[in-house]
Amino acid sequence: MTTAKAGNIMHQSRSKEHGEGPATVLAIGTANPSGAIVPQDKFADQFFRVTKSDHLTDLKERLKRICHKTGIEKRHFHLTEEILLAHPEFLDRELPSLDARIDIVATEVPKLAESAAAKAITEWGRPATDITHLVFSTYSACRAPSADLQLASLLGLRHSVCRTILSLHGCYGGGRALHLAKEIAENNRGARVLVACSEITLACFNGPDGSNLVGHALFGDGAGAVIVGAGPLAAGERPLFEMISATQTTIPGTEYALGMQVTGGGIDFHLAIQVPMLLGQNVERCLLDAFTSALGDDACDVTWNDLFWAVHPGGRPILDKIETVLKLEPEKLAASRHVLREYGNMSGATIVFVLDELRQHREEEADHDHRLPEWGAMLAFGPGITIETMVLHAPRNPKEN
Ligand SMILES: CCCCCCCCCCCCCCCCCC(=O)SCCNC(=O)CCNC(=O)[C@H](O)C(C)(C)COP(=O)(O)OP(=O)(O)OC[C@H]1O[C@@H](n2cnc3c(N)ncnc32)[C@H](O)[C@@H]1OP(=O)(O)O
């Protein structure tokens, strides 16, 4: 056989191994724990009472001011007063508590993911055993085997399912998991990838101090799951969003700005005050790069207000900053603001809630014959500072496919 012929055969067999077209989001599910739902205007009183910190009046007043500015109305938590009564060590960072925290989250993180994944699988309409790959993201994975294996068992996935766990990616974990799922689906014909992001703040919870108030005012618990696959689609599979191109960018010199660290007393975190400004300064460049990679020269014709938007609502000022630098009309970030208001920042899981809200909104709008944007942008960010950007394409009428 000539080299050219061998190369041709290899090329043909490689193209048979690849999926057709871009990967698509085929189904979405979300879930929150049933532990406690805390209204944001009651959070400071509750937090200082259960942590026996009412005497720290200045900190409590500061937390009230911060809560008022978050754009959050309520959050869901696995953690309850009963759990805190059983674990007083969770209130004092100096006491060893990591083992007890991990014992709880090692069970609860996969269980929460299961609730979200079960909804996605039902919507998808195929058996769970048709899932070929699992990508799991959480900041609570401190053990092996980890939450990905437990989720696979809970859902009854096949033993040959290829599992990947993303640990401590924080808030860009959802974006990174979707990016990875896209690459897997496009490079493995017939692959169906379950993305699961499950976050429970119990690993980070602590009594109030001067540095942890913003995190306690912002973060909540939730899980999101997405099924991703490329063509050919099976009968009944419905593309919700095509994942056209994806990029990851790190803002140089910003390692200090966002971080998480596992300690004997739980996971410590820090959020620098400069984060909204740093994102504002860098986000348009990431978008231009992603759209140029997706559309080539036609990217010049893209107008930000002609797109639909799925932005990780890291915090209210982050959304405000992005809205300002991109000169977006206020309704463009409505899905992100809705998720922030109803659930707070659920770290890596949040972007899945935003995609879910966006598709529900698009389906409702289609009922009213409103003309919907076909092209969209997804943004997720977290420690690094890392920005995950994805160009999305959706049917103009989501009910037609
Ligand atoms: C049961 C409970 C369970 C809770 C568990 C705890 C959960 C921990 C979870 C850990 C997960 C960690 C994941 C880490 C990865 C993050 C990834 C991302 O999302 S990336 C995105 C992460 N998101 C972000 O980084 C954005 C977070 N920031 C915000 O959302 C807003 O800035 C705001 C709501 C805090 C204030 O609204 P704004 O319009 O700015 O209002 P003002 O200007 O009027 O300031 C009011 C007060 O706030 C102060 N202050 C402000 N910023 C900070 C700060 N960073 N630092 C300290 N303080 C800060 C400011 O000094 C002032 O104090 P004071 O003068 O009154 O005494």
Automatic annotation (TrEMBL):
<protein>
    <submittedName>
        <fullName>Uncharacterized protein</fullName>
    </submittedName>
</protein>
<dbReference type="InterPro" id="IPR012328">
    <property type="entry name" value="Chalcone/stilbene_synt_C"/>
</dbReference>
<keyword id="KW-0012">Acyltransferase</keyword>
<dbReference type="InterPro" id="IPR001099">
    <property type="entry name" value="Chalcone/stilbene_synt_N"/>
</dbReference>
<comment type="similarity">
    <text>Belongs to the thiolase-like superfamily. Chalcone/stilbene synthases family.</text>
</comment>
<dbReference type="Pfam" id="PF02797">
    <property type="entry name" value="Chal_sti_synt_C"/>
</dbReference>
<feature type="region of interest" description="Disordered">
    <location>
        <begin position="1"/>
        <end position="20"/>
    </location>
</feature>
<dbReference type="Pfam" id="PF00195">
    <property type="entry name" value="Chal_sti_synt_N"/>
</dbReference>
<keyword id="KW-0808">Transferase</keyword>
<feature type="active site" description="Acyl-thioester intermediate">
    <location>
        <position position="171"/>
    </location>
</feature>
<dbReference type="GO" id="GO:0010208">
    <property type="term" value="P:pollen wall assembly"/>
</dbReference>
<dbReference type="GO" id="GO:0016747">
    <property type="term" value="F:acyltransferase activity, transferring groups other than amino-acyl groups"/>
</dbReference>
<feature type="domain" description="Chalcone/stilbene synthase N-terminal">
    <location>
        <begin position="12"/>
        <end position="232"/>
    </location>
</feature>
<dbReference type="InterPro" id="IPR016039">
    <property type="entry name" value="Thiolase-like"/>
</dbReference>
<dbReference type="GO" id="GO:0030639">
    <property type="term" value="P:polyketide biosynthetic process"/>
</dbReference>
<feature type="domain" description="Chalcone/stilbene synthase C-terminal">
    <location>
        <begin position="242"/>
        <end position="394"/>
    </location>
</feature>
<dbReference type="InterPro" id="IPR011141">
    <property type="entry name" value="Polyketide_synthase_type-III"/>
</dbReference>
